[in-house]
Design brief:
This protein is mainly α. The protein has helices at residues 2-26, 32-44, 50-75, 81-91, 95-116, 127-132, 137-162, 167-194.
């Protein structure tokens, strides 16, 4: 995969980086932990500029973020009413939790969106609750861009500084990402096991 990514970056430059990061955002198995360090390596060799690499990566990722946000916003949380009523246990959601989530997101949505963009695994799904809970577009774009730019800058700078050892980024982030997935799975299992239906909306 790394060789294919490198070839695409070599052929298409900044546009290739943007396309790869867009695809990574809508199809998470394509890892940004490989894309951006490789792009940073190309910048270190003088083929591209580091600011240009960061800007291209952030632009591509933000396009994908905006797509997920738009889909979730068009769907809206109210349209999930029947699904929540029928499958609340497996969603681990009732309408009381939805109302609490709306209230919490109204107070802390900006922090969640910004910080969530630099957390592996979580960063790919941040747009969905933001769209479902109708976070205003302006704050969503601003805080998503801040977090996304920070993430792409960290990875690109790592590739720029590490040179041929850019692969160490993926090796370090891999266990961290796996740990987050394990925690989320355990949390979900606990929620399913302890979930009890509550009446009311």
């Amino acid at each position: 995969m790394a060789q294919w990514i490198q070839q695409l970056v070599d052929q298409l430059g900044y546009f290739g980086i943007a396309v790869l990061m867009f695809v990574e955002t809508v199809f998470p198995p394509l890892p940004s932990e490989v894309i951006m360090p490789l792009a940073g390596l190309r910048a270190a060799r003088g083929a591209l500029s580091l600011p240009g690499v960061i800007a291209a990566g952030a632009a591509g990722a933000m396009t994908g973020n905006l797509c997920w946000y738009a889909v979730a916003r068009m769907l809206g949380i109210d349209r999930l009413h029947g699904l929540i009523d029928r499958h609340g246990r497996w969603l681990t959601l009732g309408w009381e939790e939805v109302e609490r989530a709306k209230s919490w997101f109204g107070r802390h949505g900006a922090l969640f969106v910004c910080v969530g963009r630099i957390v592996p695994t979580v960063r790919s799904v941040v747009s969905i609750p933001a769209g479902l809970l109708r976070m205003p577009l302006g704050p969503f774009l601003f805080w998503s861009t801040v977090g996304t730019a920070a993430w792409t800058a960290i990875l690109a700078a790592a590739g720029f500084l590490l040179g041929q050892r850019y692969g160490v980024v993926d090796r370090l982030m891999g266990p961290f990402s796996t740990g987050i997935i394990v925690v989320l799975v355990l949390w979900y299992a606990w929620r399913v096991a302890t979930w009890r239906p509550r009446h009311g909306r």
